[in-house]
Amino acid sequence: MDMFDLSTWNVVAVDDEPDNLEVVEEILLIYDANVHTACGGHEALQLMEKVKPTLILTDLSMPGMDGYQFLYKVRHTQGLESIPVIALTAHAMAGDKERILATGFSGYMSKPLRMANLLTDIFQIAPSLKPTPAQEESK
């Protein structure tokens, strides 16, 4: 597995389930990403007034403001319009992926997330985010 230095990344992860946030955070922290978590869309929008994200990962099924409403707000907020927004969801029925992408998400990843696939999937969805592999430190 390539080691990437993601220390310049600000990732906003949005999910109403703390365990899901913890998984995303732990995986991305391995690569030194700055991970900011929010338990809902409203909280995430407030967070992004202070933090400009490199990438947004959001659940779709959340109370108060679901992932689709959150995406709409992001796409209509100055400075956030072009940020990659990836839907994280347990919805894996036929047609779900197409429907999710048709609403304007940059990509779709199904839960449960796997450490081995997370970065590969992110780089497939948003290839412009892929950094060069970190140099191996000499001993």
Give your account of this protein's structure.
It contains five helices and five strands; from the N terminus they run βαβαβαβαβα. Strands 2-1-3-4-5 form a five-stranded parallel sheet, with helices on both faces. The chain has a single domain (about 10-125), classed as Response regulator (Rossmann fold, 3-Layer(aba) Sandwich), CATH 3.40.50.2300. The radius of gyration is 15 Å and the shape is globular. About 30% of the residues are buried. Strand 4 (about 85-90), helix 4 (about 95-100) and strand 5 (about 105-110) form a beta-alpha-beta unit. Residues about 135-139 have low confidence and may be disordered. The chain is of the alpha/beta class.
Helix and strand succession? EHEHEHEHEH
Considering DSSP H and I runs of 4 or more, what fraction of the residues is helical?
25-40%
The CATH superfamily is Response regulator
- The CATH topology corresponds to Rossmann fold
Principal-axes shape call? globular
How much β-strand is present in the residues? 15-25%
Q: What's the end-to-end separation, in Å?
A: 19 Å
Main β sheet profile: 5 strands, parallel
CATH hierarchy, class: Alpha Beta
Structural class: alpha/beta
Low-pLDDT stretches are: 135-139
Oligomer, anyone?
Answer: single chain
Overall pLDDT: 90
Rg is 15 Å
Total helical elements: 5
The total tally of domains equals 1
Q: Could you tell me the number of beta strands?
A: 5
CATH arch. level architecture? 3-Layer(aba) Sandwich
Spatial strand order of the main sheet:
2-1-3-4-5
